[in-house]
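Entry:
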Amino acid sequence: MSAIVILAQNTFFYKKSVIFDVIYSPKKTLLSKYCSKKKIKYINGVKMNTLQAQKALQITFSSKI
């Protein structure tokens, strides 16, 4: 746990960044809280996995869903 805190403290994100977090459980992670505090756009793993699945289905079936 402390390694994650150190990483967050030593990491810099631009205000215009969009952060995709691969974690979807728990919904609130240290990274999500950091982004919220710094007003950086954050998308959790649920959204990312949904977008990936949608794209995979489009490629597989050659159509938009």
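The first helix runs from residue 2 to 9.
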